[in-house]
Design a protein that fits this description.
Length: about 600
Amino acid sequence: MQDIIQLLPDSVANQIAAGEVIQRPASAVKELIENAVDAGADTIRLIVKDSGKSLIQVIDNGSGMSANDARRSFERHATSKITKAEDLFTIRTKGFRGEALASIAAIAQVEMKSRKNEAETGTRIEIEASEIKNEESCVCSAGTSISVKNLFYNVPARRNFLKSDQVEFRHILEEFERIALPHPEITFSLHHNNQLVFQLDKGSFKQRIISLFGNKSNERMVPVDQETTVINLAGYVGKPEFARKTRGEQFFFINKRFIKSSYLNHAVQAAYDHLLSRDSFPSYFIMMEVDPKSIDINIHPTKTEIKFEDERSIYAILRSSVKLSLGKFNLTPTLDFEQEMSFANIPLKSEKDFVSEPKVHVNADYNPFKTESKTLSSKSNWNALYESIRLETSAPGNSLEQVQSQLENIQEEEEKQVLQLHGKYILTSIKSGIMLIDQQGAHERILYEKYVSYIAQRKSLSQQLLFPKTIEFGAGDFELVKELQPELKGLGFELSEFGKNTFVLNGLPADIKNADGAELLEGVLENYKANLAVLKIDTRENLARAMAKNASIKTGDHLTNEEMEELIDQLFACHMPYRSASGKSIITTLTLAEMENLFKK
């Protein structure tokens, strides 16, 4: 019988490995800059063209490599970081698997120049699809320069799945920030399409934060500093009044390695308890030093997930440290039982001030048990509105017969009341029983269909601000706003660029009342990014969802009878009134028969 199991060639194995290690240009940027940091460089330059699709070049002044090391570095599992399995528990370097260069060389055209400090000449290697095309001695600066050209040139399917230049460059910025932040002792620069994006000189951690996120960051942060036998903490957290609607400026670093941890994020969020609304997110830049033996970073190829030996203790220390810093700088509510300072500076009234006795006015005709019936103002128009409803009869509970039956129930009732329950639901009676409507879901559906139409037709009206507002974004969010600017204009946002990472907001959507423009835009961006992570929908639909969720009536908002009636009218004029944009149910009914059954009648 013929054998069917075969050993794959190295070039094929490398391409398979590249699928995990190098997912997009930003992945290659991350691996190359981390190698430069591990090489001991104190100056690192990143040069990118066409968001990394044409060129990614990293130049450092690190230790450099000999000719043999330069050639061997492109082989799979070749590394200088570890030599035995036990070394995995004492890792302090960025990389250790020895997969990055081999994976990059399998899917791109790579040129490397490297020279050790004590050597007179360096080595130049050209490699394509894991095959060395040229190797020679050359004159070059001490350190290493690696150029990655035409990424995924031999994997057209992967190249076709890359996003727009704006999206890919935003991911590159994220990776650049995650490495540059914990290394203020290193000078970093970033050039994109021959334009300088960042020039980060050596300095303190705080100076690095300000260089990346703007001068205003200085006044918005308070320091966190705590040393324990379990973990050492250092860094900065944002003041509650500067919390944002987006999660962009949230960074954890373990032994100078960026990590993602919803568990630790919850610890920080808990420290802000009663200081922030539920939809606001504090900024934080927290460096943590732990014994490498107490963590496991060998979980995922990106090395951003970590398992802790004692995560409960770290959670408690982190939460209490942040809370202590907020309290130390008088940012959390405090009560001094010996002296309450809020009473210390009450101004005394002058003798000429006259204090009169308050009078109580009683309306003798008021009867708290008397109710006034109200006819729904738009009852006569409901029939015309509902005739246009077209629902998919296959959807559960959405058959045309059921819709018509409910419309008839509403029409035939001459006198009805509309009630708001717990600031969440709208209750109205129908002939067959009662109808309960989720007010936020209903308004989201109404706004979603309206915004989809606005973006498609670019016909939304904008109200010009009397005083335009300057909004400073992180580098990633700035690129995102630039990418979405045509669609945002279709919604009514009038934006113009104003310097580095800054936009001027000149106008808001005309139907938005009493809203803070910066908070509204930040909330839309946060919802947009959240949808992007879990949903495969186009930009227009995503932005319409994000805008509808942010601008809709919220739980707890009080509505008048007229507002509730108008909401019901608009809901039943929608193409799909029974489901919100996210697919959740909006309407439920309870028939008289079901109510009688509940009471055993």
